[in-house]
């Protein structure tokens, strides 16, 4: 068990590889991708090929306030990330509108059946053609075959991979915690 | 039946109300929200209180190329949108990290049981407090009670509301269509 959390027991972890981040243009989208990854059960984000202190600050602040052990790596070349991931026995999933439809095909089941940790690759700009090849992706997965958003695709992929249980995961060492309400906002501050 | 589509038969439609859009700062995120809404089965987007020709151009281009009858309204005051929606018997759902947890609670079932068209409200900036009140929202729904992304929340909400069938919906009058592949990209151009 890699999560010490009874409400969210996943035997396999997911890490998100964000490729093609352009600091100014993509700041907010990559921030949303990172926060989505964390909130929906991924273990970490790798911002490949580039470093961005703003992304780092946002992720660190989220983890400090809201808890959990979400990791961030930056600047590693994407080929190295893929190579290292596979060397440890993990599989790679490229999210793309061109891939196998997650609803129509059995691709999600095949990913689960691989019984491996999953590196989910999400692009920003147009990705290199080799992302679709066996050299990079074990699976090309489409959250619908329409153009939309890597942030949306990632969210649906994680929700389906973890069967919804990621949304009731509790985060260790949180300073802040939302108490769900029908009306209004309720935040509890947890003494350290 | 409001969708003329055998693969995606929903008796109720969803329209997304995007509140708080700031043209420069939110351009890309609102674009992603709009494309996600369209791709994941919503019938339209209302950009309240403001007009943005860039969003309009992107949505129109997506509909022209990829089909469907997704609608865009802009500039209507949000209070008017809510009032009109309710006057026609629709319910309003405010997506917020503070709301009832979509996985833990029965809120999604209650929304479905309302047997009504749904206006999904997603904020950008911090939303006015009244969004949480009965005057505005019939339901406050959290896609997990962690901070993340309105784009991600919308995606998961739509996927769950439509039971995944939105991802295999076909879009009428498309000029372009992706044929899902295990490897590579295949786009078919459809003669008009």
> Quick one: how many beta strands of chain A?
8
Task: Please state roughly what percent of the residues of chain A sit in beta strands, choosing from under 5%, 5-15%, 15-25%, 25-35%, 35-45% or over 45%.
Answer: 15-25%
Q: How widely separated are the two ends of chain A?
A: 26 Å
Characterize the main sheet of chain A.
Answer: 6 strands, parallel
What oligomerization state is this entry in? homodimer
Poorly predicted parts of chain A: none
The greatest interface here is: A-B, 61 and 61 residues
Tally of helical runs of chain A = 5
Q: Classify the secondary structure makeup of chain A into a structural class.
A: alpha/beta
Question: Strands of the largest sheet of chain A, in order across it?
Answer: 3-2-1-5-4-6
Overall, the morphology of chain A is: globular
> Which radius of gyration of chain A do the C-alpha atoms yield?
17 Å
Q: Which sequence of SSEs, written as H and E, runs from N to C of chain A?
A: EHEHEHEHEEHEE
Can you give the helix content of chain A as a percent range? 25-40%
Average pLDDT figure of chain A: 95
């Amino acid at each position: 068990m890699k999560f010490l959390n009874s409400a969210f027991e996943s035997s396999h972890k997911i890490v998100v590889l964000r490729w093609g981040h352009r600091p100014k243009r993509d700041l907010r989208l990559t921030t949303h991708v990172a926060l989505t990854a964390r909130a929906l059960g991924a273990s970490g984000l790798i911002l490949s090929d580039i470093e961005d202190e703003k992304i780092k600050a946002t992720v660190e602040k989220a983890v400090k306030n809201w808890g959990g052990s979400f990791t961030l790596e930056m600047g590693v070349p994407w080929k190295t990330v893929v190579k290292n991931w596979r060397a440890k026995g993990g599989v790679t999933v490229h999210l793309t509108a061109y891939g196998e439809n997650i609803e129509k095909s059995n691709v999600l089941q095949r990913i689960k059946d691989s019984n491996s940790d999953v590196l989910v690759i999400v692009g920003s700009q147009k990705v290199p053609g080799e992302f679709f090849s066996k050299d990079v992706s074990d699976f090309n997965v489409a959250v619908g075959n329409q153009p939309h958003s890597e942030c949306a695709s990632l969210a649906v992929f994680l929700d389906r991979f973890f069967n919804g249980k990621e949304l009731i995961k509790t985060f260790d060492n949180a300073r802040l915690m939302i108490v769900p309400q029908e009306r209004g906002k309720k935040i509890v501050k947890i003494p350290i």
